[in-house]
Amino acid sequence: MNDWNICIILLNCAYTIWLAAFIAKDIAWLRRITIAGNIVVLPYYYFENETPLWTPIIWVCIFTVINLVMLFLIYLESRPIKLSDIEQKIYELTFKSLEPRIYKKLIDLGSWEELPPEVELVTRDSVLDSLMLVVDGEAEVVLKHGEHRYIPAGGFIGEQSFITGGKTYADVSTGKEATTILRWNSESLRKYLANKETLKDAVDLIITADLIYKLRSIEEEVDEIRHSQDLDVSLSHKPYSTHSTSKKDNNIEDEIKTKLKTWHVHDDS
Question: Domain containing 36: what range?
């Protein structure tokens, strides 16, 4: 078999490999198979004519490098996420409906703060520019008429202002012991979620579940606000997805609007 026939065979083998790449459903396999086809076709471009076909050779090399880079990025994105003990704790308490990689990106937007006891976090009737999460310890809430409530680890602070954009309705400070919080800038968080509708819906549902449980606890006059993980709301969909149009979610949304309206009227009386 002469060189000319070998080159033609290699060209047809490359076409066959590229065809298989187009059939592949997995993007990583598509890129791997494409690279294999690129390697197989190179001898044809180099030996088929007396002068190597440098233009297609260069472009095939460029395509190969691009696919190799993208494969490396896919590898980086597919590696298991390692969470610290405290990150894992908060994930289990509050964000277990999110895919761990998405959760990690979300908390990395915030800043961790270790605060001494009785540090003021929120002043009543003020505009709050941040959303906070109790990571360790607890936060003390003082309502208008002096009632005290306590937010445990995994509970949000300032979520009502984050949702409504309005002023705060209570004073909040760290408890009698040192407290660790995670703080997000509200504007930055909104911008991050703006183009991620599915993630935004999931985060909204998490925050809403937390807020409605706080309001229920206030109505029942319990000292410690129970955690939103006990709320009967489905957050266990596919990674960081939520069916915001489901009947249960709509019921929660209606309930929180009613409770907010009722509570605000009662609180200002």
Answer: 3-78
Paired residues of 115 in beta bridges: 179
Q: Are 177 and 110 found together in one domain?
A: yes
Q: What pLDDT digit, counting tens, does each position of 69-103 carry?
A: 999 999 988 888 888 889 999 999 889 888 888 99
Beta strands in the chain (DSSP E): 111-115, 120-122, 130-136, 139-142, 148-151, 156-157, 171-174, 179-185
Domain end position, chosen among 47, 78, 109: 78
Specify the pLDDT at position 30: 94
Q: State how far the Cα of 38 lies from the Cα of 55, in Å rounded to an integer.
A: 14
Residue 187's φ and ψ, nearest 5 degrees, are: -65, -45
Contact 131, 202 (CB under 8 A): no
| Residue 40 sits in the same domain as residue 68 | yes
- Give the pLDDT mean for 219-224: 55
How far is it, in rounded angstroms, from Cα 140 to Cα 144? Answer: 13
Mean confidence (pLDDT) of the chain:
80
pLDDT digits (tens, 9 = 90+) for 142-174: 877 777 888 888 899 988 888 888 888 888 999
Among 22, 51, 78, which residue terminates a domain? 78
